[in-house]
Fold each of these.
Amino acid sequence: MSGLLVAAAIAVSAGAALEVTPARTEAAGYAITHALVVRNLVKNCEKFRDRLQSDPDAALAAWRLKNAEHVLAAESYLVAARIAVERQHGREAGEDFHAQTHGLFVEQANRTLNDIFGALGPHTAVCERWVGAIGDGQADLNWQSKYMPVLDELREFERSLRPGR
């Protein structure tokens, strides 16, 4: 089932099974922001590939293997939350919810990347440290363990909607 189909199913089920809450929205935002940071950090470090001990693509693949299901569940939840907001408050409110949440996630990811790279921008030393950490699992979503119970809940709910479960 595609992410949008799962999100639609979540929205249809949301009244009884998965309420839109600030805690869920915050946890979903954390997962999406973190994924943006990891993906863009690796992308910025690819030009140093020949100087790094860890391959950036392999590091990203390892990260996705461990974290993608939580990120997908977070993305599906936010689509469902938008649909729920639209149902309650109209299309414009749903669009505003989407614009505000995604704008905030992109802004936070950009701020984090700027903090990581500093004034020098991407360079070998920073890329060595972070690409290695990403590949070794030190930059997984469980880095902020306070969000994991909610992200696990979102993941399990999404799993329950998949065919064959």
Amino acid sequence: MAKRLTPYLLRRALDLPLADKAALIGQLRASITLPEDPAERLRYLSDKMQQVAGVSIADGARTRKMLAARNIFVFVARQEGFTQERIGAFIGRDHATVCIAEKKMREVFTYPKSYIQEINLYNRYVESL
């Protein structure tokens, strides 16, 4: 599936500034092979988030852990080109929830010190893809 970083490159990647990490993530994502069927791609992304975060993103819970996982899933799914309506239908929410989740993730990458937990979860998720 995804090309893995060697331990040496992974240590170097963790030392990079946030903007460079985002570029590295973009390069890794380009090497990822996702299923062609859109429904299967969403299911794949959802399953990976469940493995990484330990929560199901379609669950109705509103815990901090659940919301962080759902926001990251929405952010990655939007990067994959899915519409807000399609993502919202998949997670059992409306498009406004998806819009708010995207905005929240932009804040996470703008103010990294206050959102270190979410950034770590995002990095683990993207690495697992």
